[in-house]
Design goal:
about 450 residues; Immunoglobulin-like; Rossmann fold; 3 domains; 7 helices
Length: about 450
């Protein structure tokens, strides 16, 4: 039956700017139908729009499907579904009919398909309900519904809840659709079918393709699980991988800080089987918003299973980032490959002593909405005797924010230029790059306030 499900999830839906989250990859597979007995109900649309070649081609496809399952269950097309598997037939128009219970006789099944005639409306809800009734809840067999239809629901209640209940009970649902000018919408088939849609839904506008679609689906249902699985997961560049736990099956390796490769030699070959991998990632960007966790994820195996993983996203809250001083505009320089030297006019710049640049970040806590904040930064240098010398002061206005509650505000990249000829920290006076000692003091207060000072009143007596 190949890979029957795949999933990717995260343990939280909201993190702060430097937050972490756990990512879980999971998939499951089932073995060859010959070692994994399966009850299959073919649900066939016989509404009025199927008259003519659509009905003929659907019948051919359904009978081809039955023959392939016959062959795959016991390695012989002997007219009998083997290894404990069974097939049933349900057809529908205004209502649904069980044309064949779950049986093993290929001749009876083919005869039930041949007996179908077109006419009436399209009641998908009745079709799903009747198909579900055929399964024995006490049977250990895997349970599969193959729904074929060419039209939208025109009778009965909405079918989606009935299909969802069947999936919740462990039934795997495949859908084949014949799309006409007013026919079934593929998104509806996706809603009914088991995930992932790519391996459980097939649709065509040409009824001549129906036999091939039924043939491909039978091959998919009857094949072995999956071997030589390789999953390459690349997370978004806004995150970095911090740790990888050993998977429940196979091996996982970090290729770089954003890429994991998970390899599984075989899955679901001899029994229904699942595997999962957990790893932790951390947000490293400085921007807020809803962000996709993965940049890409690819799957491959020897059997050619088509596997699609969900694409989860997380809301990142970085508060407000203020950058009061932009970096200087660079001067672009180019030297030709064979040019030994070059003289370039780099324009004007302010004259500065030889020195260093000290860049400070500070977080102002609990800034309430609608309030500007004045931030002062005082920098001093400390000599060996503990005396302090002024090296600069910055005054910055932090703009008001409109979040509904008080927030922390990160002020980034406050720069101080520190010429070397002012070094009082000690060390070799003739050396450059001595260690220097500084103290930074931060003063912040709210600018906007409701307080109003009352005027002084003097009364003379």
């Amino acid at each position: 039956m190949g890979v029957t499900s795949s999933n990717k999830g995260i343990n939280v839906d909201r993190i702060d700017c430097n937050g972490t989250l756990k990512v879980t990859l999971a998939l499951s597979a089932s073995p060859d139908i010959s070692s994994n007995p399966t009850d299959i109900v073919l649900v066939l649309d016989r509404s009025g729009s199927m008259a003519g070649s659509p009905l003929a081609n659907m019948k051919a496809g359904a009978k081809t499907f039955i023959d392939i399952i016959d062959q795959s269950t016991d390695d012989s097309q002997d007219g009998n579904i083997g290894s404990g598997s069974r097939i049933g037939i349900v057809s529908f128009s205004d209502t649904a009919t069980a044309n064949a219970q779950l049986i093993t006789s290929v001749a009876t099944l083919r005869s039930a398909v041949d007996s179908l005639t077109a006419g009436g409306a399209t009641n998908h809800a009745a079709a799903f309900a009747k198909a579900t009734e055929l399964f024995d809840p006490l049977s250990a067999n895997a349970k599969v519904i193959v729904m074929f239809t060419d039209g939208k629901t025109t009778a009965g209640p909405p079918p989606a809840p009935i299909a969802a209940a069947a999936r919740a009970a462990g039934v795997i649902i495949y859908c084949i659709g014949l799309i006409g000018s007013d026919g079934i919408d593929v998104s509806v088939l996706n809603d009914w079918a088991t995930d992932p849609d790519a391996s459980h839904v097939a649709a065509t506008p040409d009824d001549a393709d129906l036999e091939e679609l039924f043939k491909d689906l039978a091959a998919n249902i009857s094949k072995t699980g999956a071997t030589n699985i390789v999953i390459d997961e690349v997370i978004s560049p806004d995150f970095t991988i911090t740790s990888v736990s050993p998977p429940t099956k196979g091996t996982a390796m970090m290729m770089d800080s954003n890429t994991i490769q998970w390899k599984i030699q075989e899955l679901g070959v001899s029994a229904n089987e699942g595997a999962s991998l957990e790893f932790d990632i951390q947000h490293i960007a400085q921007s807020s918003g809803e962000k996709l966790v993965n940049q890409s994820i690819t799957y491959s195996d020897t059997e050619g299973n088509v596997v699609v993983f969900p694409d989860p996203s997380v809301t990142v809250e970085c508060g407000i980032v203020v950058t009061p001083e932009p970096c200087p505009i660079p001067v672009d320089l180019t030297i030709d490959g064979c040019q030994d030297s070059a003289v370039i006019d780099a324009g004007d710049t302010y004259l500065q002593s030889l020195g260093r640049i000290l860049q400070l970040d500070v977080t102002v806590k609990n800034v309430c909405p609608g309030k500007r904040v004045a931030l002062g930064i005082i920098l001093t240098e400390v000599d060996p005797n503990g005396m302090e010398y002024q090296r600069g002061m910055k005054a910055i206005t932090i703009p008001a924010h409109s979040f509904p509650s008080c927030r922390d505000v990160l002020v980034k990249c406050v720069k101080f230029v520190l010429p070397e000829d002012l070094d009082v920290s000690g060390g070799n006076p003739d050396a450059m790059c001595n260690a220097r000692n500084f103290k930074a003091r931060f003063i912040a207060h709210t600018i906007d306030t409701d307080y109003r000072c009352c005027d002084s009143v003097i009364t003379l007596r």
